[in-house]
Specification:
By secondary structure, the protein is an alpha+beta fold. The protein has helices at about 20-25, 30-40, 50-85; strands at about 5-10, 15-20. Helices cover about 60% and strands about 15% of the residues. A two-stranded antiparallel sheet has the order 1-2. The longest helix is centred in the C-terminal third of the chain and has 36 residues, at about 50-85.
Length: about 80
């Protein structure tokens, strides 16, 4: 399975793939590179796509934690209201 961006056709298969920024590909955690590419963060040769992915992942995780805390507060509030009835 190829995770790099599509680069064109080749004689032994339908497509070949090219890594846009080899240094970033080599120096970053592989799972982050795969997820960054899947998420569309590695479409250019500009360095920093993996870092942008990591920041986006952290932002989403923080937002999820906030929403989970709010959900728990609402759930506890509803639970205590039901016990009073």
């Amino acid at each position: 399975m190829g995770y790099a961006q599509e680069a064109g056709n080749h004689w032994y298969g339908d497509k070949i793939y090219a890594v846009k920024n080899l240094d970033e590909f080599i120096s970053s955690p592989f799972e982050d590179v795969v997820q960054a590419n899947t998420g569309g963060f590695l479409k250019t040769e500009a360095y920093g796509g993996v870092e942008l992915y990591q920041k986006d992942r952290q932002k989403k995780r923080t937002q999820m934690e906030i929403e989970l805390k709010e959900f728990r507060k609402r759930s506890e509030s509803n639970s205590s209201n039901n016990k009073k009835s």
